[in-house]
Amino acid sequence: MSTGLLTAALTLIPAAAFAHTSVGDAHGFATGFAHPLGGRALWLVPAAFVLAMAIGAALGLAGVPLPFVEFAIAASVVVLGGIVAFACRAPIAIAMAVVALFAIFHGHAHGTEMAVNAGSGAYAAGFMLATALLHVAGIVLGYALGRVEGRAAYRLAGSAVALAGLVILSTII
User: Fold this and answer.
1) What secondary structure, in 3-state letters, does the chain show?
2) Between 13 and 92, whose confidence is greater?
3) Whether the predicted pLDDT of 154 surpasses 50
4) Which of 108, 99, 26, 35 is nearest to 70 (CA)?
5) How far is the C-alpha of 118 from the C-alpha of 139, rounded, in Å?
6) Domain that holds residue 67
7) Which of 2, 18, 80, 98 is in Cβ range 3.0-4.6 Å of 11 for a Cys bridge?
8) Domain count, the chain
9) In whole angstroms, what is the distance from residue 81 CA to residue 87 CA?
10) Could you give the CA distance from residue 125 to residue 40 in angstroms, rounded to a whole number?
11) Is this structure's pTM higher than 0.85?
């Protein structure tokens, strides 16, 4: 499971490039302050992942069956790594939807592991916080990687993640 979460963090690497959109006029304090923090996708996509993961966890905790959970988690590693490797760009809403779809499966796996007692809330808060921190780590790594190695490094990292996903898939099938 931690491989999937690490993959989710690594897929955010290309989002660092959204800081330079070359669209519209850049002016004012707020625009200047937000500029080095990246575009909306840099925060909306990870937020969609964490929110959808919480929904998936609630489904799992409630005992709602979801087919092919492990397969979908492994497939998410391949797909999201491939998106980075091939430098695919999509509107933010589509990126959020793709990430959220996969996150439901990740969350469902966590939810089915939760004990149905007073500690399940703390468990959920723990894995959600850890996931958010992995996303932050991915963003920081992306910025560092982009400054040192450039866009080719993003593509290479995405390829490595997709390859890891194929290895994971091979153990499931």
Assistant:
1) CHHHHHHHHHCCHHHHHHHCCCCCCCCHHHHHHHHHHCCCHHHHHHHHHHHHHHHHHHHHHCCCCCCCHHHHHHHHHHHHHHHHHCCCCCCHHHHHHHHHHHHHHHHHHHHHHCCCCCCHHHHHHHHHHHHHHHHHHHHHHHHHHHHHCCHHHHHHHHHHHHHHHHHHHHHHC
2) 92
3) yes
4) 108
5) 33
6) 2-172
7) 80
8) 1
9) 10
10) 24
11) no
- Looking at residue 128, what is its pLDDT? 94
Candidate from 40-44, 48-52, 61-65, 99-103 with smallest mean pLDDT: 40-44
Distance CA(94)–CA(46), nearest Å, equals 13
More confident residue, 17 or 100: 100
- Closest C-alpha to 1, from 56, 77, 67: 77
For residue 156, pLDDT over 80 is answered with yes
pLDDT tens per residue across span 65-99: 999 999 999 999 999 999 999 999 889 999 999 99
